[in-house]
Each structure stands twice: as C-alpha cells, then as structure tokens.
Amino acid sequence: MSARYQLSGTTAVEISAGIESGIRTGALSPGAALPPVRALAADLGVSPATVARAYQELRQRGLLVTAGRHGTRVRPRPPVAARRSALRPPPLPGARDLSRGEPDRRLLPPLGPHLAALAADTGPSVSYSDAGVLPELAEMARARLDADGVPAGELTITGGALDGIERLLGAHLRPGDAVAVEDPGWANLLDLVAALGLRPIGVPVDDEGPMVAGVAAALAAGARALVVTSRAQNPTGSAVSAERAEALRALLAGRRDLLLIEDDHAAELARVPLHPLAGATASWAFLRSVSKPFGPDLRLAVLVGDETTVARVAGRTRVGAGWVSTVLQRLVLALWSDPAVDELVRRAAQSYEQRRDGLLTALTEHGLRAHGRSGINVWLPVPDETSAVTALRDAGWAVAPGALYRIAAAPAVRVTVSSLHADDLAPLAAALAHAANPTPPPGFPT
Predict the structure, then answer these.
(1) What is the CA radius of gyration of the chain?
(2) How many other C-beta atoms are found inside a 10 Å radius of the C-beta of residue 112?
(3) Distance of alpha carbon 112 from alpha carbon 117, whole angstroms
(4) How far apart are CA 186 and CA 233, in angstroms?
C-alpha cells in the first residue's frame, strides 16, 4: 500500500469508504496490498471484526480480492471510476502497443456512407410505445444465426455482449452464487462476476474450448451458470470443436439447475466453424455482438435463448434502459445488408488469421508453443509474467500480463496481433522468445 495514503475510520462503513476513495483517486493503485485485518484493526483501534466486515463488503462489490498468502489486494480493474491520472500509463514512447485486444481500425467498415443514407431516410422520431427490437433486424439476425446452426426462436437485443451477460446473470443468480468461467478467460467478465458479488469457479481451457473434466468439477462444486466463448476466446484464441461440443452437450444434457451462456463475440471474424451448445440445458442464451467485426462503438448484441430466459432479459431492459437505440439497430441492419461490408469483414478475418498464424509459426521456430486457434490474440506461456512484460517493454513491445485473465491458470502473456505487419513477426517472435527464456546473468548456473 502506498505510504502516502493512510486508512482511517472507526466503523466498517467509514473504513470501506476510505479504501474506495483511495482507489478512486489512484492513491491505492490496482494490485496494491492492504494491511492484514488484525494489523489494520490495531492501527485504527477497532476490532478485527470491523475491518473484516469492511474488507468483505469491498470484496462483494468487486473492489478487493483475497489472494491467498499474498493477502488482500485491490483488484486489477476494480469497478469504480478512477480519476484520469489513475488510469494505466501509456506504453513507453516509440513502443508498439499489442496489449489492448482491439481490432485494426483500418479494417473496420466505414460507417459514414451508411449514416448518411440513414440521415437522408429519417422518418418520424420513434415514440416510447413503439420502441423495441426492429422486426426486420430480428428477421435478419435469425437467418444469420440459423445459418450457423443456432436455434433462434426467442430473441432480444442488448447493449453489447457484456451487457447481455450482466442481465442474464442478474436475472438468474444472486450474490454468493457460483459461476463457472473459463480460466484463463475474458478479463471484463471476471471483473463483472466480482462486481455482481458472484463466486467464480475457473474451468481450464485448451485449444478446443472448456475442458470437460473442468466443467464437470465446476458443476460438482455448485456452479449455477456456465459461460462459454464459442470462438476467438479471449485471451487464448480457443474455439469449441465439434468433438468438444458433443462431449459438453452430453455432460449438460437436461440440466435444469444451470444457466448456459454462450458468447460468440467474434462472429463473422472467426474463420473456424461454429459448434454451438445452445439448447443443451433448460435455461440457455446465445449472444452475438457486432462490435468486433463492425466497430467497437456499435454497442449491440443479439441474444437468443429459451422463452423464460429471454423474457427475463427483455423485461429487465424494459424497466431500465428501455431499449437499444433503433437508430443503432437500423445502422447494423444496413451494414448486414451491404455486400461490400461483407467483403471487408471477410478480408479482415483473413488478415487477422494470417498475422496470428504467422506469429505462431515464428514462435515455433524459436521452440515456443503458443496458442491462438482463432481471433486476434496469441497466448504465450512464460515462467514469470513480470519479468517477461518488463523484458518486452525494454525491447519496445507492450503486451498484456496474463494475471488480468487468470484465476488458477499458469502464467502467460497476451499478444494482440491486429496491428502487426508481416515484417514485425520475426523481431517480435525473437523478443518474445527472449522474454520467455531469459538468458541468466554471467556466473549463474543455467
């Protein structure tokens, strides 16, 4: 903990408010260690139970995490808005930033022509009573899902994949319930689970998706929901294979006590077949976002599922945000209807595949086995994340530490390939090889 920030308070509410203030202002940075319960209680002159309640409240809200022998720490990305000065520092000047997990802006479809066409064709403003899912968008979404073998009877729209997952978990689970999540898995999802007060159970992942034994163990441990990434899993790039889907379906068949959520966020950018699990359980939902293929600012995802699950999400949306903007829906519909946009997305998917496979091949030549079956990321196991990230920073490359994505999985780094050029691959692979297998200083045994 920063020596400049002193905790205070005589009640659990005051102590937790002081810690939250420190996180918000940046005085307590992500990952900062907090004093042991008894030590802080002695410093403040309160009972250990008072400090324990303060820590527990912040853990339930996802601001703190208990890290075993490492004690209690601020989460890497706590769900509280921090001052701009507290945000993560940018990469060193001149460094290539491969840490962000974003698509290549140069490969996104231009929105201007479609926005201009919408502006020219604008009719009367939508009223509160008329707003909702546009029938023509629902019809086209069902057709696109049906082509991939996803049953698409009941359908609604959410403000992106994570918004949909939040609404699904909130409609089915309560704080303290267990959720089976991929490990390593999507950092935003891990943060969301913590912020909702849910208990994550990590499920190991290989190149073919969540491992069956891991899912079985999570179910035995009481998981009430399972979140699976269909393709382009973040951070490993795994994709559920036909064989893995069959095995998971057999394991999940008929479960009435489990909510199954599938996230197909890469959608048209994934150049591997989709093998959905949709319908394997009584309660299920399949989400497909438009952000990765068409642009991060397009906050829209199609959600299909069983009647009860979709009705819960749609009903909660109606009494909250109300609906996803019909202007945005019309824009997405225009993009889906444009053959030229389809071609741009196809070329983008092919480009990402070439960059990803090129880096994997270059790493193989250095004797390294990395992962990246689909998507825009490569996951490279390393002995020590801190030293690897530091070595790469010194070599001019910024990558994401695997700790952001792990529960119990082994250390690694995530490399986003979307901005790479062909002549980047060899020097990047060499830098990654050095970071993964650093040369010991002279005089030390190897």
Answers:
(1) 23
(2) 8
(3) 9
(4) 8
Chain Cα centroid distance, residue 420? 22
At 293, which amino acid appears? P
pTM of the model: 0.85
- Spatial contact of 246 and 208, defined as CB atoms under 8 Å apart: no
Q: Which residues contact 234 (CB under 8 A, 6 or more apart)?
A: 101, 185, 186, 187, 265, 375, 377, 405
Give the model confidence (pLDDT) of 241-260 as tens digits: 999 999 999 999 989 999 99
Paired tokens of 253: 């068949």
Token couple for 388: 């690897």
- Give the residue from 302, 301, 254 showing the smallest Cα distance to 279: 254
Cα torsion angle, 115, 118, 124, 127, sign: negative
Collect all residues with Cβ–Cβ distance below 8 Å to 113 and sequence separation of at least 6. Answer: none
Q: Are strands 223-229 and 154-158 parallel, antiparallel or unpaired?
A: unpaired
Q: Which amino acid type is present at position 428?
A: L
Asked if 153 and 304 count as a contact pair (C-beta separation under 8 A), the reply is yes
Q: Got the DSSP string for 34-46?
A: PPPHHHHHHHHTS
| Look-up of token digits 């079985």 | 216
Q: 174: which residues sit within 8 A by CB, 6+ positions away?
A: none
Tokens found for residue 378: 């490569």
445: amino acid identity, one letter: P
Rounded to an integer, what is the distance from CA 155 to the centroid of its chain? 23
What is the Cα–Cα distance from 120 to 270, expressed in whole angstroms?
A: 34
pLDDT tens digit sequence for 369-427:
999 999 999 999 999 999 999 999 999 999 999 999 999 999 999 999 999 999 999 99
